[in-house]
Amino acid sequence: MSRGWPAGIDEYAYEMLPTVLWDGASNHAQLACKLHPGSEGWDAQQLAISIGTSVELLIKHMLAQRSFNLLADRFSDDTALTLDGKASKSVSLPPLTTVTAAAAFDRAKRVCNLNLVKSDYDIVFEVRNAALHLGIASEHANTEALKKMAALAGEIFDHLGVSRAKRSAYWGGAAAHAFVESLVDEAADEVRARYDWLLSVARSNYEQLVENLVGSGKESVVRQFAEVRPTIDPIAEESVPQQCPACRNMGWIVYAVDRSSPIVEYADEEYGYRLSETYVERDGIADRFECGVCRLKLSRREYLVQAKMPMETTLEPDGATEQEISDYADAQIERYIESMDEQARGN
Length: 347
Prior knowledge:
Elements: E1 5-7, E2 10-12, H1 17-35, H2 43-66, H3 77-83, H4 101-111, H5 122-134, H6 139-160, H7 164-171, H8 174-212, H9 218-226, E3 237-243, E4 250-259, E5 263-269, E6 272-290, E7 297-298, H10 301-306, E8 312-319, H11 322-345
Helix pairs in contact: 1-2, 2-4, 2-5, 2-6, 5-6, 6-8, 7-8
């Protein structure tokens, strides 16, 4: 194995892995800006690859600052030792099993307490994968992905407290930084315009509905429409009442449910303890909003933010499923075996 981490013709000490990841993310970000809009030859494919790779490396930079072990897929022992520079010697690049971009995103969100939703940035990895695995790319999709790349980088920079000077250096200078900021502003303007249009259409629908209702039964009909819940996945989603920003009647915000590991409670009995209940705690992340009265549908997170919807909530606990209990037990056994292996190796 080399003395440290190779990065092109350079070599870093093992503890400089976050720097390697930062520099890699920066190089791909700068290349993406230079290639945009990617209208010549293979530029579109390279642009797409650099967009996704830049985001993945930046997320992993953030994880590496917390702990190198967060980069190991399923917390692989061999990979963890390699990341710490303690693996067996190798004349070439060491074998590494690191987390995917999606898994890295989830870990960063959980470990670093980032208020982000992965589905908002799916296009970043979709364009990268399409170009990398199929050799295809779309200028329109690349432009949307570039805006998302810039927005996500800004969120990460804010979280890390990155100075403006360092941000400019990351993008390749003041001019490139200004270009990226203009992309973010343009995306925000587009969201506001689209949101206002959706509200305008919904309000028109509500006015027509009210005009067609007469007499004392009007409120009853409106209430019946308001009580119609959206179609959801009963395991992965939950709908919660929320005032509609268009017609001010009751609508429904749908939360994607994040279920915790099973929590076991025991009942205290005279001669010991017995298993009382196994449940999971549930958190909700806003996914969409629907109103049965004016037919407003807000299907993107950006629209929910514009409407000032509660983006996260704590839901009622739920009983753990048999599969969750089984997976949790298997994970506990695997962790115990790994700890015994580490003790045997003297770690």
